[in-house]
Amino acid sequence: MKLLIKLLLLAQVCFCTTMYAQTATPLPAIGSFIKPAATRHAGVFNVYVQDAKYYLEVPDSLLKRDILAMIVINRGSAQLARDPRRRYGFAGDVVHETIFRFSKNKRGGINMEQPQFYNAPGAKSSYYATLQNKAVPIILSFTPVAQSKDALLIDVTTALNSDMPLLSLSGAKEELGLGAYQANLSSPLSVSSYKNNLVFRSTRAYGPGVAAQKPASLAPGEPQQAEEADKQVNGPTAWEVGASWYLLPAKPMRQRIADKRVGFFTRAIKDYTQDPSKADDIILTARWKLEPKTADIKKYNRGELVEPAKPIVFYVDKNTPAYLQPYFIAGVNAWQKSFEKIGFKNAITAKMEPDSTQDPEFSMDNANYSVISYKPSTTANAYGPMVVDPRSGEILSSHVAVFHNITDLLQRWYFVMCSTNDPRARKLPLSQDIMGRLAQTVITHEVGHTLGLRHDFAGSHSYDVDSVRKRSYVAKNGFGASIMDYLRFNYVAQPEDGFTADELLPQIGVYDDYAIEWGYKYLPQYKTPADEAEKLKQWVSEKRKDSRLFYFPEGDFYDPRVQSEDMGNNAMKAAALGINNLKLIMSNLESWLEKDDDENYTMLKKMHTAVASRYNEYLGHVLKNIGGHYADQALIAEGKPNYIPVSRQTHKEAMDFLNKYFFQEPSWMFPQNITNKTRFVFAGQVEGDYEVFMARIFFKFSAISRNERIQGYQAYTAAEYFDDIYNGIFLDLNDNKPISSYRRMLQRTYVNKLLSSIYNPPTYENDVAIILKQQAEKIKQACNASLKNKTDDATINHIKAITSMISQWEGNKPTI
Q1: Residues 649-662: tens digit of each pLDDT
Q2: What is the per-residue DSSP string for 62-122?
Q3: How far from chain centre, in Å, is Cα 372?
Q4: What torsion, rounded to 10 degrees, do the Cα atoms 747, 751, 752, 755 define?
Q5: What is the DSSP string of 760-781?
Q6: Where does the DUF5118 domain lie (predicted)?
Q7: Which end of the chain is less enclosed by CB atoms within 10 A, N or C?
Q8: What is the tens place of the pLDDT at every residue in 716-729?
Q9: Beta pairing, strands 237-247 & 67-75
Q10: Residue ranges per domain, the chain?
């Protein structure tokens, strides 16, 4: 809607300057209007540059044809300050796309229309005529200046220098933090016209603006908007921009209707075919058009490997560091085996960016080419977007982005997950061959996104933790079902398991092969997309008897199977093994890093922080089991339940883990020989994180109560939960030892959340309000009784503060 408003406002301005009063004066012929000295760019549309003006020849054959405008940054703007959380702003970024058409208006002019797409009944249907009769929004209208028997010539000079989404950065204004458009500082640069593609290049200048910040993430999708305080004011900016106008095929690719049990990116389109009286959204799968050549269809049907008519080709940015280039290519080519399993050889490949002698048509702003560009950014990020035909879901091209500081992130991950098993990881910075292999896994993951695959965060859960510690098992199955999980590396493997370095890295898994088969198997035997969808639905139901093929969207907050960065089907067992490795790292951190570190202990500090961060990840994996439930998307097709509470046994296992690894102080993480150098200590640096995590534990009672209501006597109850927390963090009231600052923090946080929550009893189920009150009284009594055993001032003052807090609540408590 924002785009449409922009276009309509712009149309009002340009309409006045380009619309004309129809006269009887005949238009000159294009051949006589265009002078011999003019520059001619011949292609899908002929473009002429004459007397500092730009003329576009619009053939009758291309009227009402859909054209996709793809806006690419060819040169980013120099900026005094740039927030590293911002994704876009570099050469090779596709920042906006939209679709338009040329048409003739009733006065003989040329309109640029904003089409809307839908599936409709056949042309003979009366309802089809109604749909076709709807008014189409007009973007711009042009007065022809010359004509031929089958084309009109229009002057597009004014439009080229305007701030319209089809040609400029206005469609990404908020993302890039652009201010007011400065037309006097903007100008066209060049034009290239190809057989199905026209590229206008220009400089675009903007005044100071405010960028809407978004947190950096390896996950593509919809990140949260930052608070107003996080927005950054940018100074004036100048950019070089390419606007690729790509002629979409007259006949769209056959649609493949999405199945939510298989994780693909999708596009919605209005569908009137089932019931013309109303519009329902039909969800289309985003995928490349991968089909055999006509001459090879019989071979394909016989099961022979054939090359597709149009393979998927990625070009690696020449600015990519030389040592990474072969690994980027290998990361793309890793998908070839998946396509071979469905009959296509050389279906996807990668090459280095060609020079002008090798391919004069290549450019990053040419929509015919897919690229992997390397960004000179401090952001530790990578992403794999797609340009999609909204009529069919066909992926037309992709611009994978790799930010420079991804190498720093990979190094930290590899050290904290693999240095106990790979001695080479103990020498930092990592060698180029190690870093290349790590980067290769990132490229394979991001290219998976460009093939249409969403994250499969359930990909690791179907693998038993004990199994992924066995080399023979991993050699055959990998240690996760999908490279589209955030699988990272095999952190549960222990030194005694004997893994080689290569065996610690993720690979394309059984789920990925299954998803590629579902999305790309050539199925011409079905007459309609609906027929095909019905057969594929049955196929998916049969295939999903293999638990490794379970898929659930990444945004689920309750299903413990759906987690990023985790490993195996038991978060408690996996986290305990991961912490074993972290403890081993901490006991050797100084000796492993000191020989290669600087006088400021830079690497020691960085890796100490990385260990603490990884420890937090493991705690989070366990916490998701508490109050969790298992869901599925196969309610009709397979008749599976969509709500199964996590068992009482798993809850008890999770609470035992938290008691051992969180309620008890992780002093192993802060040995004095390390903290003397890193100054990374509990107080003031990680205390806040642990307070937040303790609060997250406390508030799980709501989900536990809901499960208790559903599951009845078999459930892990809220009363049991609060008792387990109490026994985990308050038992040191019973002895005469001082209570550490860590334990005091846990107790203080718990009591704060307890008392503030008692004030909201109507929102709670299963007598939770009463249980909270009983907990407060239990803690007060235990604190009062413990004062006779404690002798140190810090502990005594802490206990008195807690009893005072509870007494104050008792004096002001509402009736329950």
Answers
A1: 999 999 999 999 99
A2: GTT--EEEEEEEEEPPP-S---TT----STT-EEEEEEEEEEE-TTS-EEEE----EE---
A3: 16
A4: 180
A5: -GGG--TTHHHHHHHHHHHHHH
A6: 28-69
A7: N
A8: 999 999 999 999 99
A9: antiparallel
A10: 2-248, 294-604, 605-812
